[in-house]
Amino acid sequence: MVKKCIIAFLISMVPLIELRGGLIYALIPAGVIPVPLAYAVCIIGNMLPVPVIFFFARKVLEWGKDKKFIGKFFTFCLEKGHKGGQKLLRGKNGVYIALLLFVGIPLPGTGAWTGTLAASILDLDFKKSSIAVICGVFLAAFIIGVLTLLGINIVGG
What we know:
single chain, 8 helices, mainly alpha
């Protein structure tokens, strides 16, 4: 069980996969990791990179966008963060609620990494952004957990 927790934690830290993949990994097969522990491990793993992303990722990406081997990838990341930021600015109920929903609705390309990068690119307040991101991670964890556990029960796993 400890090995599976460590792997779920590490999966939850990976960009694009994040908590969505970590939680599914942690919950299947059912009963190996208790549900509350699976949630805790994956949420902590997903949130751990947030301060680093907020304070340093934009600077590193802007530095590397002109470099020969990494430039295309870094430019892609900056554009992804910028597009995410534009979506957040369209939010009618405030940028932080939009950030929460952007992170919380489990769709490809959304999540704590992209949401935090977008908040950094938009120069949003770190504390308010972090609260919105953690609430979004909780929302995503709830949605993914329910869908995963329903799937397990339907399939009979």
